[in-house]
UniProtKB/TrEMBL annotation:
Transmembrane segments: none annotated. It comes from Selaginella moellendorffii (Spikemoss). Pfam families: Glyco_transf_61. Residues 212-302 form the Glycosyltransferase 61 catalytic domain. One of its GO terms (cellular component) is membrane. This is Glycosyltransferase 61 catalytic domain-containing protein. It is a single-pass membrane protein. Keywords: Glycoprotein, Glycosyltransferase, Membrane, Transferase, Transmembrane, Transmembrane helix. The keyword Transmembrane helix applies. One of its GO terms (molecular function) is glycosyltransferase activity. InterPro entries: Glyco_transf_61_cat, Glycosyltransferase_61. The keyword Transmembrane applies.
């Protein structure tokens, strides 16, 4: 009778609780809103929940529903392992569960939501997950981009595709061991960020068979490699040849300086990693391709350019790559903002979003004298950093979890 009581006491709650804010700095959030009190701890870890644990009174996490357009139709609850609800499926192994305000295709959006699972893994015995269940606003996600799939494969030791729970029937699916993360990297200390990205860089180099490179030594010949990533379409350079000319002129004045112009869209994941591993300076317009800076050697520099209108209307999102440079041990060398272009045709006070969308994907122009001066200053600072460095960042020949991970 006790067992039957425990079985029938199981209740399901909405994954997306519309009574709660979607983004919050407090303990409440609309995804699994009953979970509180684990946002940030004194060790600088991000918010994470593990089940079963004391927070669930020793019960397993169960999920039900795979609706892709209405998160309120998807449910969660907690059940005793020996007394699962009628029709439930029990899944052994480790399950990763994430909710993302944005998407899982864009490299920045997906990385910032999921890469913290790699940190959890290193802290917990290098356990290899069996599956990942991903949500966007509580709505089931059916696919992730190839870029994040490869990063997770390298970092977690297994290739994962989103499990939509559709092959287990219509009842609840209950997990032997589950980790839930809802805020991505939010709350993680800089020290832990640096360790995390060092580890991910090391694992991705191994995965792609790319040798680590010393920033201080500049490779074997002491050169400085500038990589200019040219976007095509949104935020492309309106005068690419002029940009190349201005940077080339300054590069030619520095012994060993070399400029490469690449289009990330034409490269495989590991080709992107190889390009970044050889880059001392990354110069490009604001965009998701900048997420690849995490594969540059520590100590490198990033030069970021914006179309008109971003400073006034883009909000904090325009600073994400400044943050990423800091997290990955790089030097963000500031930004250039194109002052030229039409005025916003909307009311700038009451229609700020419309103004941002008006400017968001405009091309990036050129101030050749400023770009020349900026490039010269960056090259001079790189030389000074190299000259003053008595020891390079350690080049890792082995990475965390090597005893478990085998890439073929």
């Amino acid at each position: 009778m006790v067992g039957e009581h425990l079985r029938h006491s199981f209740t399901m709650m909405e994954l997306k609780d519309l009574s709660q804010p979607g983004l919050s700095n407090g303990d409440t959030i609309w995804f699994m809103s009953s979970l509180h009190g684990n946002s940030v701890d004194d060790q600088g870890k991000p918010e994470e929940f593990r089940f079963p644990s004391t927070i669930s009174q020793g019960r397993l996490l169960c999920l039900q529903g795979n609706h892709t357009h209405n998160g309120t139709m998807n449910k969660y609850g907690f059940a005793w392992k020996g007394f699962l609800p009628d029709g439930a499926t029990y899944l052994p192994g480790l399950t990763l569960v994430a909710d993302n305000y944005w998407d899982y295709v864009n490299p920045w959006h997906s990385m910032s939501a999921l890469i913290n699972f790699a940190a959890w893994r290193v802290d917990n015995g290098c356990k290899v997950p069996a599956r990942i269940v991903a949500y966007h606003w509580g709505e089931m996600v059916t696919k992730m981009g190839d870029w994040i799939t490869n990063v997770l494969h390298a970092s977690l030791g297994v290739k994962l595709r989103p499990d939509t729970l559709s092959s287990y029937g219509s009842g609840p699916v209950c997990f032997e061991d589950a980790i839930v993360q809802r805020r991505g990297l939010g709350g993680m200390s800089k020290e832990r960020m640096n360790r995390l990205f060092d580890m991910v860089r090391c694992k991705v180099y191994q995965f792609c068979k790319v040798p680590p490179r010393s920033f201080v030594l500049g490779g074997k010949d002491g050169r400085i490699d500038i990589t200019l990533v040219a976007r095509s379409g949104p935020r492309e350079f309106s005068n690419l040849s002029g940009v190349v000319s201005a940077v080339s002129e300054q590069c030619a004045m520095v012994k060993g300086c070399k400029l490469d112009i690449v289009s990330i869209g034409n490269l495989s994941f590991c080709e992107q990693v190889e390009v970044m591993s050889k880059s001392d300076v990354l110069l490009t317009a604001h965009g998701a391709q900048l997420t690849n800076m995490m594969f540059m050697p520590r100590g490198g520099s990033v030069m970021e350019l914006f179309p008109k209108g971003w400073l006034e209307f883009a909000g904090v999102g325009q600073y994400i790559y400044t943050w990423l440079a800091d997290w990955t041990g790089l030097k963000h060398e500031g930004v250039w903002r194109d002052p030229d272009g039409p005025d916003c045709p909307y009311d700038t006070k009451t229609q700020a979003l419309e103004c941002f969308l008006f400017y968001k994907d405009r091309s990036v122009g050129l101030n050749s004298s400023h770009l020349s001066s900026w490039t010269a200053d960056v090259l001079e600072r790189i030389q000074a950093r190299r000259a003053s460095s008595v020891a390079d960042h350690i080049l890792e020949t082995s990475c965390s979890c090597d005893s478990v991970d085998r890439f073929t």
